Structures are given as structure tokens and as C-alpha cells.
Write the C-alpha cells for this entry.
Amino acid sequence: MSSQKIFLFDFDGVIIDGMHEYWHSSLLSCEKYLNSPYISFDQKLYKRVPNSFKEMRPWVKYGWEMILIVHEIIKTENPLKNHNKDDFINNYYQNCQRILNDNSWIAEDLQKILDKSRKYQIDKDFKSWVNLHNPFFEVISFMKELKKRKIKTGIITTKGKIFAERILKQLNIFPEFVFGYESGTKIKLIEELTKTYEILGFIEDRKKTLIDIKQNAETSHIPCYLADWGYIKESDRYNLSNEIKLLKLSSLENLVAILQ
Ligand SMILES: [Mg+2]
């Protein structure tokens, strides 16, 4: 095994809380680029993130799904609200596919629109865009502690790589690498990384991703941590297999200690 030690992190919900940014950028995508006849626009929508959006965030795997959710929330007829939210969630994947079909949308196009909306904001007012994100400072300290111990850090996200990099730079964090959705699935990427690095752990807030890692023979040895502070479903906290540890922000200091 390689002597290059590395610790892996997901980005959204692990290093930063970007809830305001997800809402803002997805809403801007709907306003500027989606051209849907089913929505009407009010600038007040930017002011507050609705609870229905916050509560659905744990189900989101890729950014484009957020545009679709925002579209459903701001629809003029039969919008997604708290009372019908559970029906959506209970069949989340199928509902996303149905809405794509009904509107003749393609997931990749929605993802491009989201990236475009982020680029637009960065070009227009970078500072305001960055300020829509709140870092988890305990995680930032943890990353700095790792650096002191000569342990590298790597980031694997389903966000566009350049956007994660812009935020990390602002936080003075320079990982060994950042992989975004453009680079492929997390499981494939991590499998590849095991050839070069000794992976000391992976912190992620999507339980399914961690289960996949544990079930893959090439990656099952990697210590997996579910970020308790991230966008996780209430049910994720329970019935965790022994192999996936629920990690709290307050436990990061102890984790540094055992990595020495
Ligand atoms: Mg995440």
C-alpha cells in the first residue's frame, strides 16, 4: 500500500452549509434560464429559503434536482408545499424522472443551467456569492490539523469542481485535489484513488454513498463517517451498520487523535 496518507471529504453539507446558495442559484436558474410557462416570479422569493426546500435537501444527489424542486415549489398551480412534500419524497427518484419527462427537460441541461447561474453570480459579485455559504469551522480546523500531521486532504463532490475550488480558496484550504461531478461517480473515483493513496477516512453526508463504498470489495476497507451535521435524513441516524460511524462535529478532535 502507498505511504501517501489522505483523508477524503464530501463538500456540501460536510465542509460548508450552502443552503442559501442552493436556493438562490436554483431560483436564479428558474428565473433566467428555464423558460417555464408554469412559474411566475417574485423577487421576494430570494429572501427566504422555504422549509419545504430545506427539508427536501437530504434527498438531493445532483445539483440539477434542486432546480426541479424549486420549479415545483414556485409553480403557480398545485405547487409543492409541506402538505404534499411527503408524497414527493416517498417516490423521490421516480418523481424527478416524471417531472423531467413532463417538461421535456434533460438532466444534463438543468445541470448546465445551474452552473451558468453560479458563473453569472461569480462574475457579477463574487463576494455576495461566496457569502451565501457558511463553512463548518470545526471541519476547517480538522483539515488544518491533518495538514500539520502531513496527511493530505482530497475533496469529492457532486458539485462542479470550479465552484468548490473557489470557495475552498476563500477559506484558505488547498487540498491535494478536488473532483466534481465531471470526473465521474464517487465510488469509481475512490476505487481509483486506493491505487495511489492510503485512505484514512471519508466523511460524507449521503448515507447511500457510504453504503456503496462499504459494499465494494476495492473500497470496503476505508473508514466511513456519516456527517451528523450535514443534510441527512432523520432515519439515516438509525440502523447504521457497524462499519459506518455517525460523526459529530464535536468528535472531530478525537478523530485527529486516533489518526496519529
Ligand atoms: Mg453532501
